Fold this sequence. Notes:
Elements: E1 3-10, H1 15-31, E2 38-42, E3 52-58, H2 62-69, H3 73-76, E4 80-87
Antiparallel strand pairs: 1-3, 1-4, 2-3
Amino acid sequence: MPLFVALFTDKKDHGHVREAALQAHIEWLEQNKDVIPVGGSLRSEPDQTPRGGMWIARAASKEALDLLIRSDPFYAAGLRESYEILYWSKANAGRMELI
């Protein structure tokens, strides 16, 4: 199954949307951990409101991952300004541990 990286950019000044949908998003990620084993927010500095996020995913296709993204509570709440799905060729394929 192909590996992907999904990069998300949040809408500016939508930290309140992120906060309101965060618990539902975390629960959704847990329900989809087989497809998205690693995900998290991205920010310029540790104490800043996130500007977006990144996932490492394993999905049947780019289209399947796109459909899954559209079911994410963050997406449904209108947090995301944009996202990009990229195919990922992992170096050292035998080492699947990430963190």
